[in-house]
Prior knowledge:
The chain is α/β, with parallel strands linked by helices. 36% of the residues lie in helices and 26% in strands. It has 2 domains: 2-149, Alpha/Beta hydrolase fold, catalytic domain (Rossmann fold, 3-Layer(aba) Sandwich); 154-371, Rossmann fold (3-Layer(aba) Sandwich). An 8-stranded mixed beta sheet has the order 7-8-10-9-11-12-13-14, with helices on both faces.
Amino acid sequence: MLHCIVVAGEAEPVLAEGLAAGDSDITWSQCLPQDVPASLAASTLPAVVVGIGDAGSAALRAAADDGSVCGVVLWDTPLDRADLELLGEWPEVAVLGVAHASDRRSLRAVADAFLISAHPDSDLVVAGVEDPAADDAALARVRAWITGRRAASVTVDEVVFAGVDGWELHGTRWLPVSDVPVPGVVLLHTGRSDRAAYSRLQRLLAEAGLAVLNLDWRGRGESINRGSYFDLAPETRDLAWQDALAALDHLAGLESVDETRLATAGTVHGAEYAVRAACRDPRVVAVVLLTGYRPQDQSEADHLTSGEVDTLYITCTGHQVTTRAMRELHSAAPAGRSQYVEYPGSALGYQLFELDHDLEPRVVRWLAEVLNR
């Protein structure tokens, strides 16, 4: 399934009807540039954004803030240097440049967009000037390219399952279509965010062949049937690692998931819950800690340094206490069983995604490597 958003100014021609013909697995919508974030937020599917004419630049910039975007079409769109730099820093998103041969300015701009994109599926379509058949052929090529962006090898579902103590847990589940069971990853956000923090990471993990459950743990996002996180008693909040265990059970119970190759990944409180779940579930063989973690007790430290799990530590110099703890854990682990990455500053895990656009792909590469050994 795929969600395609056509973005056009009020005076621009409407191409959505012609583009939308034929594929029932693609949902279509149309909006003005300023409404792109809301349109993306309204869908849980991977998205392609089609920017038409002068609206294309604004559509591109709005799309760049959303991790669900897997493709961008720029149709007769003038672009400036900042637009091209943005595309150059967005290698995981395919770009299709479309322009009429007579519009030299737009043709030059979308050709530059195609050339600067590092994605292997980026392409360029030049429409005819007077020959209607040529325009129809161009439309068909654009439609085929968009259809090709459809995540045919991945299914995406909103899921609800039971936690302990009556919690109703919500999450987004991404399952690669595979002939053999695949590894699974549970994503755990911070206490001040929800699963939206991992909108790009979840897609990249699934595209790499890993099953993903991006969880709203108790009191956050949609998992609020028993109250909001900061209204809960501290002892109730501290048991959110049980939600991580429930998420692992959910993934492990699927025939398409290999229950012996599971991982958890979390930021700050989510990192704490990731480790506490891993300590209690021997199916977890890898853990990603995205800043803000130090062991609650010696048993956690012993587990992380035992050689039973691979661990990726990501931290910042500004978090002195937790960074010292993570560095010591890495140093105490058996050779080859952990990696350590340290950034300057004091950003939290998901904030680092904005500062280093290659961090999420790096996390994906590490998880894919250790879970497929």
